[in-house]
Amino acid sequence: MTFLLLLPVALSVATPQELSTVPIPGAAPTVAVHADSPPPVPAGGPELADPLVDPATVAAPPAARNRHTPGDPLEGFNRKMFGVNQALDKVFYRPVAMGYKHIVPKPVRSGLRNFFANLQEPVVFANFILQLRIGKAARTLGRFVINSTVGVGGLVDVAKSRDIRLPHLRNSFGDTLAWYGVGPGPYVFLPLVGPSTLRDALGGPVDDVAFPMLVISNIAGKPFKGWRFIAASTVIPGLDLRAESDADLRALTDNAVDPYATLRSAWLQNRAAEVAALHHHHAAPVAPELGDPLNDPAVAPAPAPAIEPLTTPAPATGGAQP
Q1: Which residue range(s) make up the domain with 222?
Q2: Which residues fall within 8 angstroms of residue 157, CB to CB, at 6 or more apart?
Q3: What total number of domains does the chain contain?
Q4: What's the pTM?
């Protein structure tokens, strides 16, 4: 009885450390817990502390949330730019491009596409010279001469016909850098420019400078030196490319779990194949940055089902024939 009367006084003057160790008569044995010690972890892991908590919905630690995909160290910036691009494409770029496709007749669009592509042939030729690939440079020069003359200034792509067989060969200063072993660098995405790498983003301005130097000043002449032609040579091919690739873009991203990661993976694999083709590789090796955990499996080709050979069942023996 005396102990019960003195217990409140003892509790009031006890320190927190002492309080955790004071035994209470009739109570179950307790484990001493110090104030500076961490709380005990339930057996089976922290996610079992509450049986109603779904482990899949538990927030990841900050280190895991901030981790970027290999090859894309600017992922946070790129995703924001991708969102800006998607918004601009939805309200402006795609409607204008599709309007251009529906209003301008197909023969006119094809002629303009050939015309502006033909004006890029000297830039392709110059990059082949820088790569010391004289044979492809000669083919590109022959293609340019044929389309500029027989093809009515490049409006008709005569050089790719079956009789001549000089198709367009893609080449750029980014390819020249890759030819001499310059790595792709980080992945970059810019609004209205699209996906690229640091190597190609730095090589693009060189081609843009070479275009007026090699084509407009020395070949095309005075009518093509104005700002109107410079703007048209950028806007018209851009609208045409956006309109012609609309179906492919929608098929790639509309049903994707992560459209940004899906587009990144597809573009990097395609670019790796182009760089491998520069060195005459039949199959492009998958670059390390393509090991993308966010790659959408919905767009990956499903393996073909195994087809069992058809066999004719042997006729039953001993039974009546139909």
Answers
A1: 106-244
A2: 114, 117, 118, 147, 151, 168
A3: 1
A4: 0.65
